[in-house]
Write a structure and sequence with these properties.
This protein is of the alpha/beta class and 302 residues long. It has ten helices and eight strands. It has one domain (12-295): Rossmann fold. Helix content is 39%, strand content 12%.
């Protein structure tokens, strides 16, 4: 068992993005600590590496559900499967995410950053509502500090926070449009949406002992970095990656937030690695929070 994680025998943990670098470490560490881990994978065959990391003796405590987390129907189907199998969920780590260098729409007509980096987490929290409440779950949304500064090259000038203006927006499909599309800002906006909704959902679930926190795990050398590195810096990409955190270092912050007894009661907070930090004022605006929840609920009600 990982010495930094308490004994999780008998606990149910749902981890998304568990076939990727950081998610694979998170899932494996939770299994080794005794938890039964459920993950959702677009290509279940990619879970073979995760099974190999876990080892045959613990592989029975890993369930892989087929599903594309950018699709509303797949999120709903996966959530139903989880609810049918588990009365309680004790940990939910929404780690799945991606950066898209070009404007793309999901099968539901939603810009892909919003579909995968925001709606997947929102959908699982709300569709798994009952077992999360029963398990007094600890929910961790893996975000990105790009929401506090959307500049890719930070050599001069002031930080430029991500924006979220929902005035006049009648459908989430209207956000991150093709006209004027800026990939890095679109990615940051989706992460800002995750944090914004998370603050409101944390209040809604607090009475039943559920906690919801967001986390920037640091700059981790995962596949997503290849897309995030500006073109001017790609010739030295290998050097940049060596200066970054390893997937294991990034995973440690997520598992700590989900399992450390000393912060068990913390909710509605944003952490930059292990330190509590701040997010843009719009993320704390009650009207923006409520409008975002309404738009998101409408998306899943279709």
């Amino acid at each position: 068992m990982n010495a930094t994680i308490p004994d999780l025998t008998g606990k149910i943990a749902v981890v998304t993005g568990a076939t990727g670098g950081m998610g694979q470490v998170i899932a494996a560490d939770l299994v080794r600590a005794g938890a039964h881990v459920v993950t959702i994978a677009r290509d279940p065959a990619r879970a073979d590496a995760l099974r190999a990391r876990i080892g045959p003796r613990a592989a029975g405590r890993l369930d892989v559900i087929a599903g594309d987390l950018s699709r509303r129907a797949d999120i709903a189907a996966a959530a139903k499967t989880i609810v049918d199998r588990h009365d309680q969920i004790h940990i939910l780590i929404n780690n799945a995410g991606a950066h898209f260098s070009e404007h793309r729409l999901s099968a539901d007509g939603i810009e892909m950053h919003i579909a995968l980096d925001y709606l997947a987490a929102y959908g699982l929290i709300t569709l798994l509502d009952v077992p999360l409440r029963r398990g007094q779950a600890r929910v961790v949304n893996v975000a990105s500090d790009t929401l506090n500064d959307t500049r890719q090259i930070k050599l001069a000038g002031k930080p430029r926070q991500a924006t979220l203006d929902l005035s006049g927006i009648g459908d989430l499909a209207e956000l991150n449009p093709a006209a004027g599309f800026a990939p890095f800002e679109a990615y940051a906006r989706a992460k800002l949406m995750t944090v914004t909704a998370g603050y409101a959902l944390a209040r809604a679930l607090a009475a039943d002992g559920v906690t919801i926190n967001a986390l920037h795990p640091g700059i981790v050398a995962t596949d997503i970095i290849d897309d995030l590195v500006p073109p001017l810096l790609r010739p030295v990409g290998a050097l940049i990656r060596r200066a970054m955190l390893t997937p294991a270092e990034g995973a440690a912050s997520a598992t700590r937030l989900a399992t450390d007894p000393e912060i068990a009661g913390a909710t509605g907070r944003y952490f930059n690695r292990d330190k509590e930090s701040t997010t843009p004022p719009v993320s704390h605006d009650p009207n923006t929070q409520q409008r975002l929840l309404t738009l998101s609920e409408t998306h899943f009600a279709r």
